[in-house]
Amino acid sequence: MWIFRSFIAGFISTLVFHQGLFHLLYLAGKIPRPAWDMTATPPLQVPAVISLAFWGGVWGVAIWAMIKKQGNARQWLLAIVLGALLPSIVALLFVFPLKGMAFAANWDPKMWIGAFLLNGAWGLGVILFMKAFGRK
Prior knowledge:
By secondary structure, this protein is an all-alpha fold.
């Protein structure tokens, strides 16, 4: 049951925390496009934000599997730190090139910091939702 709950936590956290911070950064003029991108993405033609949320759900399962047996305070810290690091590194080093984008975003510090902030916020959302859903 924890797999389902952690997937839902990651999915919802993407829509609320990741995209919420993305929107705030857009409003502040730090990001050139708004959040909650509804552009259809191949191969299934689902909105980009739903595709992102799906992968957020998959990452939610992975992160929770790594931290579920840790103490409460350690869970919070690990959710944010691992949430910031792991999806960011995979995205910048593997996903970007697969999508025809620059490897590691050309090592642009703004892109790396932005990824860490967005995914750290996502990790915070995952742990918040998992705590709200209960551990049993």
